[in-house]
Amino acid sequence: MLRVAVVVAALMILQARPSIQHRTVSIENELRERKVIVHCRSKDDDIGANIVDVGSRFELGFAPNIFGRSLYWCKLAVRDRRLTFDAYDGKADHVGGHDVSCLVRDDGIHLVDPDGTLVESFHREWNHP
After folding, report:
1. Domain extent for 43
2. Is the pLDDT of residue 46 over 80?
3. I need a labelling partner for 68 at 20 to 30 A (CA). Which of 37, 41, 94, 95 fits?
4. How confident is the model at residue 71 (pLDDT cuts 50, 70, 90)?
5. Burial profile 110-119: b = 16 or more Cβ within 10 angstroms, e = fewer
6. 42 in helix, strand or coil?
7. Residue 116: its pLDDT value, please?
8. Which residue has the higher pLDDT, 125 or 14?
9. Has keyword Iron-sulfur (predicted)?
10. Phi, psi (5° rounding) for residue 10?
């Protein structure tokens, strides 16, 4: 009987939570003349390396963890420059539980708000050897 009550309580909690929506991380290559290698992963999923041409974008779609703990990070590589950043963190303020758009530029990666403005507090610069 206790087991049934626990299952019913768990179902009620899950139904009371807002539905988990599909999320997308978009990484657009705005470099002047170079392709960028994008390699994204989470604790459980390795998306693999993708080559993104100038003017093109890479998109990663997923359903976030129901507890808001989803974390995807990406490594970018262009010739001798490297950069690693958290592309989606369900607990981070800069994401806010919505889709994420990033721009790869000569000075690094920039986060873009849903309204199209750059998020000044989120900018990661390239690492040079």
Report:
1. 21-124
2. yes
3. 37
4. confident
5. bbbeeeeeee
6. coil
7. 81
8. 125
9. no
10. -65, -40
Q: Within 10 Å of residue 73's Cβ, how many Cβ atoms?
A: 15
- CATH number of the domain within which 32 lies: 2.60.40.10
User: In this structure, are strands 100-105 and 108-112 parallel, antiparallel, or unpaired?
Assistant: antiparallel
How many CB atoms are located within 10 Å of the residue 10 CB? 10
Q: Pairing state of beta strands 23-29 and 57-62? A: antiparallel
CB-based burial of residue 41 (10 Å sphere; 0-12 exposed, 13-18 middle, 19+ buried)? middle
Q: Domains in the chain: how many in total?
A: 1
Q: What is the Rg, in whole angstroms, of the alpha carbon atoms belonging to the chain?
A: 18
Query: How far are the Cα atoms of 36, 69, 98, 116, 118 from residue 90, in angstroms, in the given order?
Result: 25, 5, 9, 20, 19
Tokens representing residue 47 in the block:
């998306």
